[in-house]
Structures are given as C-alpha cells and as structure tokens.
Design a protein that fits this description.
The structure is a single chain. Helix 2 runs antiparallel to helix 6 and helix 3 (96-106) crosses helix 5. The chain is an alpha/beta fold. The chain has a single domain, classed as LmbE-like (Rossmann fold, 3-Layer(aba) Sandwich), CATH 3.40.50. It is built from 7 helices and 9 strands, in the order E-H-E-E-E-H-E-H-H-E-H-E-E-H-H-E. The protein has helices at 19-34, 59-73, 96-106, 111-114, 129-141, 182-194, 208-222, and strands at residues 9-14, 37-45, 48-49, 56-57, 77-83, 118-122, 155-159, 176-179, 227-235. 37% of the residues lie in helices and 21% in strands. It is globular and about 45 Å long. A 7-stranded mixed sheet has the order 5-2-1-6-7-9-8, with helices on both faces. Pfam families: PIG-L (PF02585). Keywords: Hydrolase, Zinc. InterPro entries: GlcNAc_PI_deacetylase-related, LmbE-like_dom_sf. It comes from Micromonospora parva. It is an enzyme of class 3 (hydrolase).
C-alpha cells in the first residue's frame, strides 16, 4: 500500500468543539505538516456547565476558542451544523436521516461537496449520546454504493478518546496506529490549551497527562515513542 499524507483532503466530524483535538490533534499536525488539507465539521455547541467545575461557558466563548485552535493548527475550514441549546447534548433526539444528510449533502463541508479522501468520525463506543449519534450518522453517510454516482472517501476512520473506555461492553482494539512526533503531540497539547474552558487538571480524561499517556501507550503498542489510535471502517488502497 502506498500512502501519502500530502495527497489527503481530510474531513473530521467533531460532535463538540475539542473532540477533534482529543481524537485527532496529532494526526492534524502530522497531515498539515506534510501538505494535506484538513477541514472540521462541528455538529453542535451550546451553553454548558461542566459537572467537574462551576465554570459555565457560552457558544460565543466556544466559538472564540475554535478560532484560536483553527489558527494554531492551520485548518483549511470549519463549520458548525446545529448551534444552540436545542441541539447540544441532544443530537440523539434528531432523526438519524437529518444528521446523515447534513454530513453527506447539506453542510458546506458535506462529503458530496468537499469530496474528502479521508473522513474521520468518533467511535460509537463513546458513552456520550452526541458522539454515538454522530458516529451512526457517519456510518450511514459513508455507506457502500456505486462510487461513480456518489463520492466515497478512500479512508473512513473512527478516532478514540480516553473517556470512550468507560463502557460496560467490550471496546474493540484500534487497528490503525498513526505514529506521532513530539512536535505532533506538542501541537495537540497546545490546541487543547486553547480550549481553555475544556481542559482540566489531572486526573481527568481531558488533562494533558491523560493525552500524553494515551499517546505513549499507543506508541508502545506500535513499537514507537508516540501514536494515535484509530479504527478502520474503510481503506481503499
């Protein structure tokens, strides 16, 4: 298999602002450094109060953070599909068809419009209902069909987050490990710092120690210092 990051147009589905960094922050830096295009499709954002703190954040706060992260990692574009409290943490109440159509056709960053070579979405094993809904929508939007009539990304991947392991059922072992450099991981950690309302002190699933520890663990499994892990849904070589 011959693979070049420089030839990729990557579309990342992020249920909320910060999920794309938690799952793909290292890959984003690696791909952009090689010359790839990276776009982030956010699904929702609203007023939130984190259960582990008394900090309340507004959509305006989160949008400012997105802009800082986008500048830091030099994204080629981003879009918010369903802003507002009506949707935030309620994506599971939207018809699956509506979510899938947004991803596949209706968003400015829809698969049919952007024609990405790689789509990366959350894994359905997440405990978070929004993550599960987006994962299922991505599954539908990338369903097999005649690729002469409908665009098929060559690569469809699911990213992991440390909190995904909190499940009573079995979470499959990731089957793709992407090697990271210290610079890739450093960019990921700095991007997470830009999400100042979302990063936490250790022990927390969104702490710097957690992100580095998971990168070290996945690197060890590949025989390299650092890595991010993914589940392959489609790989057309």
């Amino acid at each position: 298999m011959t693979f070049s990051w420089s030839q990729q147009r990557i579309l990342i589905l992020s249920p909320h602002p910060d999920d794309e960094v938690l799952g793909c922050g290292g890959l984003i830096h690696k791909a952009k450094s090689a010359g790839a295009e990276v776009f982030v499709q956010f699904l929702t954002v609203g007023n939130t109060t984190d259960q582990s703190s008394s900090v309340s954040t507004s959509p305006e706060d989160r949008n400012d953070e997105i802009k800082r992260v986008a500048d830091h990692q030099q994204w080629d574009g981003w879009h918010m599909a369903f802003p507002g409290d009506e949707y935030h943490l309620r994506l599971d109440q939207l018809p699956r068809l509506e979510l899938a159509n947004m991803v596949e056709q209706e968003s400015p960053l829809a698969i049919a419009r952007l024609r990405p070579t790689m789509l990366i979405a959350p894994h359905r094993s997440s405990y978070n209902q929004d993550h599960q809904a987006v994962a299922e929508a991505a599954h539908t939007a990338t369903r097999p069909s005649n690729n002469r009539l409908r665009h098929h990304p060559d690569f469809v991947l699911a990213y992991e987050e440390a909190a995904d392991q909190w499940r009573t059922d079995s979470v499959p072992m990731p089957n793709l490990l992407v090697e990271l450099t210290e610079e890739d991981l450093g960019s990921k950690l700095e991007a997470m710092r830009q999400y100042a309302t979302q990063i936490h002190e250790h022990p927390h699933t969104r702490s710097e120690e957690t992100l580095r520890s998971l990168a070290v663990l996945r690197g060890m499994q590949a025989g390299v210092p650092l890595a991010e892990a993914y589940h392959i849904m489609r790989c057309l070589a």
